[in-house]
Amino acid sequence: MGKRWRWGVILDAGSSGTRVYVYKWKDPAKQQKDVDDDELQSLPKLKTKDEWTKKIRPGISSFGAHPEDVGDEHLKQLLDHALSIVPEDKIVDTPFFLMATAGMRLLPQGQQHDILDQVCTYVRQNTQFSLPDCSHQIRVIPGETEGLYGWIATNYLLGGFDKPESHNHGKGHHTYGFLDMGGASAQIAFAPNSTEAEKHANDLKLLRLRKVSGQADEHQVFTASWLGFGVNQARGRYVDALEDKYEGGETEIPDPCMPRGLRTTPQGDLVESASVDGGITLAGTGKFGKCLLDTYPLLGKDAPCEDEPCLLNGQHVPAIDFDVNHFIGVSEYWHTTHGVFGGSGNKAYDFNTYQHHVIDFCSQNWEDIEEAVATHKKASKNKKEIKNAQEACFKASWLTNVLHDGIGIPRVGIEHTGPPGLNASQGVLEDAQDTGFLDPFQPVDEIDHIEVSWTLGPMVLYASGQVPPTGSSLAVGFGSNVKDKIPPDFQHAGSNYTLGTPEDDGWSDAADDIIETATSSGGPSFLFFILTMLILAFLLRHRERRRRIFGWIGMFSRRRRKPGSPRTAFRSGTLAIANKIFGRSSAGYERVMEEGDFAQFELGDVESDDSDHSGSSEGSRLGQTSGLATPTLNMDGRFDDPRKGLSGFDRSGLAVRTESRERLVPPHMLSAGRRSRATSPTRMKSSLAPTYEHD
């Protein structure tokens, strides 16, 4: 890979499993040099691929009682996967993050700490990923932070940041709301309209990004999280309520949220026999209307609301203006509206259509559903598909209640959803980057072939933080809604900007693009041809290099021809062609070669690009390492300890040190030109790893 790419690895440690994501992006400092105006006004562009992602089960929260096993039994295969993707020479500069969500939030603080401590130790001992600050890079993130990261990822992929004029929703609003639901928690994040933003300013987070131009891009965002409102936790609360309702010795309890004939334990295990000895059996009745009524109380709409307005469970949320707030739903919002109910593609959500599909499915006999699954699915997938079908009706009722009675999403086809004459059900996701879509709610899985995951959010922040700022631009990150300064709770992006290296990497940039295209679409012979052309392009990429190669050819020709022997026509013709290629005039060349002995001539001492591309690890690395791994440069040219100046965070995400992570470049270096490697400062290799402080 060329030197222009930066890489990042992040693990989403969820309640049901852990998934590793690998991202890459152009070095922002180099990207500034040769881009058009549109790209300058955009955020750094991140890339990923499906095969760069891997998920394993169960989640790391299952190691609460034996945290010492989390490394070999859980992390190893995820780390091995990431190491197989990131180029070897980039690993040391690749930041590593593990961010745990609701599953870990449910564990006692002591168990959380022990697991995270083991993760930090294992990653440091078994990889060379950049991990100087475990308290920031390996932690349990609050639900509000998870929601904000998802909001960043959604708007980044839809283009709401880069081209706001193409996403004009009215009233000066151009961003999309974000809804996420996992197994244990649910999140909401959106930018209120200007009236609500002013009214509830103290409830908002100020998010600061940085575009490739170096200009700051600020947004005021509200985010909230409901622990226990994920589908699995909600199901557990629902079953508890059923058991309380029918307490009195019953061994079989009717469950309207399961298809007719389906029988399970309260834990969800299938029951084949007529009864379970000493236990309770849930018997499905397939009455979806009653299921909706029975799951409604789980919303907690009757909980006290101390700060109006409120949504679920007494949680304050600014009023949502659905004329301009259009929401994207991911995770369970996608799986539950598609999956077993036959949805495919990024189709607009239509309440009536969805309800018909759900009622038709849930009223079937369980035996018919099992037979249909066995017919259409491979045996290896039967177990998973059966489990999905078993849980689908409860999930559909929970999602319906959360969406429409909890959050207040209008029911398309029944309630007002926009200006008169607007057919909101025809919104098409693929057009969002050009015109925006006006559906009040849209479930999605991918945008522009990239999975919509909150993990993209922290990586966008990290890459954005590497962009050299314009003027006195403040740090990238988020915190309390305070203008023009860094609040005490500010969470930095985890990166800093660095000076671009002086070498000319234009050929390398093109090489990366061609190789990536060739490997994805061409055969071996085509790839060989491309690689050959790239080698030639490298050899001939500078005028001085062309002249030097020409000198080698001349030297070879001189040694082969005896002194005084005539030059053959073939040799003369070949050299004439070479003259055209290498940019030398034939007259000048003939004079040198014919009028003097070759030993009297040698190439002058010219500045060569070879030194700029040296592979030595001890050479100048300024501007090539990640922000977390790059030492700061003092005014006198000496490097500081890279561990100093990093702000620490506790496990809940609260700042315990507030100095900026962004280290400013000394003024005398802002106009620095090309340096020779001999005079470049070297990167110090500290044998002391940054300490990991226990909570």
UniProtKB/TrEMBL annotation:
Keyword 4Fe-4S recorded: no
Coiled-coil regions, chain positions: none
Domain of life of the source: Eukaryota
Listed GO MF terms: ATP binding; GDP phosphatase activity; ribonucleoside triphosphate phosphatase activity; UDP phosphatase activity
Transmembrane segments annotated in the record for this chain: 522-540
Region ranges (Disordered): 605-695
Name under which the protein is recorded: Golgi apyrase
Catalytic site: E146 (proton acceptor)
Alphabetical list of Gene3D superfamilies matching this protein: 3.30.420.40, Exopolyphosphatase. Domain 2 (3.30.420.150)
InterPro entries per UniProt: GDA1_CD39_NTPase
The family this protein is said to belong to: Belongs to the GDA1/CD39 NTPase family.
Pfam families, alphabetized: GDA1_CD39 (PF01150)
GO cellular component: Golgi apparatus; membrane
Residues binding ATP: G183, A184, S185, A186, Q187
Keywords from the UniProt entry: ATP-binding, Hydrolase, Membrane, Nucleotide-binding, Transmembrane, Transmembrane helix
Gene Ontology process terms (BP): CTP metabolic process; UDP catabolic process
Record's compositionally biased regions (Polar residues): 622-633, 678-689
